[in-house]
Each structure stands twice: as structure tokens, then as C-alpha cells.
Design goal:
The chain is mainly alpha-helical. It has one domain. It has a three-stranded mixed β-sheet. Helix 4 packs across helix 7. The longest helix is centred in the middle third of the chain and has 20 residues. The radius of gyration is 16 Å and the shape is globular. The relative contact order is 0.11.
């Protein structure tokens, strides 16, 4: 299954960092994935009884295609990795909307960094998807598409980053259109 590959990549990225990181790897490896066609979003991460769960809508996942499916699962793993669910939301200071936007961008960054080398086509698909969204936001808790595309670009490792806004080739071999890079970099500077 494609998501098993995401877990393996995630685990390999986290292992060298120490005991705390090893606990995060275990948490990522223990993730249950639960399909539910009643979910109004593509996917969401939660903790139930101390265990991480990703709920996903298989109908919507099928509609977005395999590249975005891989990206969206990696994004949800980012939420789990950083503990963006449950008590982490209640413990936040200040504006809940701003906190959630920041967390969405952090999860996007995690997905981009995790998939850049192993699944560059998924990162490319996400950049194109969010760039097409432009200033649109699904709700007050999600950044605009342009913000998300810019954050993904900013989080790419140097080996996968376009050399400049007019270059349409990502070093890893994936193709990012000139308009995608230029629009995302021009619209919003990364957080």
C-alpha cells in the first residue's frame, strides 16, 4: 500500500535525531488509517485513546489521484508528528484561527520535506493544486492555496528546489511550471 511507503520514508527521516524522535517514529508507525465516506474533507488526523488515527474519505482520495493522495497522507502524518490535534489546540495561546493556519503550513512543510526525494511528483502535484486555488481558503483554519504553495516551495530541500522563479525544472527531475513557481513565490512569502 502506498501509505506504507510514506511511513517508511517518515521513519527513516526521523531515526537519527535521538530518543525523543524515536518516540515520534513509534507514534507515526502506530497510526491507524480509517476510511469513511461521510468525512467532508479529504483526510484529518486525530488522537483517540492516546493513539493517532487518520480518517480519510476514499471517494475524495480517488478523485484527487494517487500523487495528491500520497501528499495528503504525508500532510496528515505531519499533524501527528507535531501533535497538532486535541490538547495541542486547546493549549494554544491567542487566535485559534492563526494557530490552525500555522499548523497547516507546518504539516505542508513536513509533507514537502518528507516526499521531496522519494515522491517528487506528489510534491509537484500539491504545488500545482494549491497554486490553482490562489487566494481561496476552505475555511478560516486553512491558509490560502497561494500560501500553501509558497510554503511547500520554501520547505523543499536544496536538491529539490527550483534554481529560480523562471526555471521550470526541479533538480529531482519533477517539473514545476514557471507560472506555478512564480505565482506561489510572488503571492506570499513563506512563514
Amino acid at each position: 500500500m502506498r501509505t506504507l511507503g510514506i511511513v517508511a520514508v517518515t521513519a527513516s527521516l526521523l531515526l537519527p535525531a535521538g530518543v525523543h524522535q524515536a518516540q515520534a517514529v513509534q507514534r507515526l508507525m502506530d497510526v491507524r488509517q480509517v476510511p469513511t465516506d461521510t468525512l467532508r474533507d479529504v483526510a484529518l488526523a486525530a488522537f483517540e485513546q492516546g493513539r493517532p488515527v487518520i480518517y480519510y474519505n476514499p471517494v475524495l482520495m480517488q478523485r484527487v489521484g494517487p500523487e495528491l493522495e500520497t501528499y495528503f497522507f504525508a500532510h496528515e502524518y505531519g499533524h501527528i508528528r507535531y501533535g497538532h490535534t486535541g490538547a495541542a489546540l486547546a493549549a494554544g495561546e491567542g487566535d485559534l484561527g492563526a494557530l490552525r493556519v500555522r499548523q497547516e503550513l507546518e504539516a505542508d512543510c513536513y509533507a514537502a520535506a518528507t516526499l521531496a526525494e522519494s515522491h517528487p511528483e506528489s510534491v509537484d502535484a500539491a504545488i500545482q493544486f494549491f497554486t490553482r486555488m490562489g487566494p481561496f481558503r476552505f475555511d478560516p483554519w486553512h491558509p490560502s492555496g497561494a500560501q500553501r504553495a509558497a510554503k511547500i516551495l520554501a520547505c523543499l530541500p536544496d536538491s529539490a528546489r527550483p534554481t529560480n522563479a523562471s526555471d521550470s525544472t526541479v533538480a529531482s527531475g519533477s517539473s514545476v511550471g514557471r507560472g506555478v513557481v512564480a505565482a506561489a513565490e510572488h503571492e506570499v512569502s513563506p512563514n
